Amino acid sequence: MDNMVFKALSDPNRRQILKLLSDAPLSAGEISREFDLALSTLSGHFKLLKEAGLIREEKKGNHIFYNLNTSVMEEALNLMMEIFKKDKPQLHTIKQKGQ
């Protein structure tokens, strides 16, 4: 998994975009109504989310619709669950063994 996914998820505005898209695909205009941000700023967020593979875009006429790429989201969630597994040795145990 690319670190770009975690960079994309680090911003609260991008997380909010993902949350909005979790229900249904939305146009850029529909998403923009939910934010008090310049369109150029939102465009930058869309670009980063696309580069990370978290969203896809589809052009329909004069509109661009965005939808969530659930497979990448599932990969990110699985990785986070793997990182924070409860059965992993505690950090102080690792340090003691490595001393």
Automatic annotation (TrEMBL):
Domain of life of the organism encoding this protein: Bacteria
Keyword Transcription regulation among record annotations: yes
Annotated keywords: DNA-binding, Transcription, Transcription regulation
Protein name per Swiss-Prot or TrEMBL: Transcriptional regulator, ArsR family
A Pfam family assignment: HTH_20
Domain HTH arsR-type intervals: 1-88
GO molecular function annotation: DNA binding; DNA-binding transcription factor activity
Xref: SUPFAM superfamilies: Winged helix' DNA-binding domain
Record carries keyword Transcription: yes
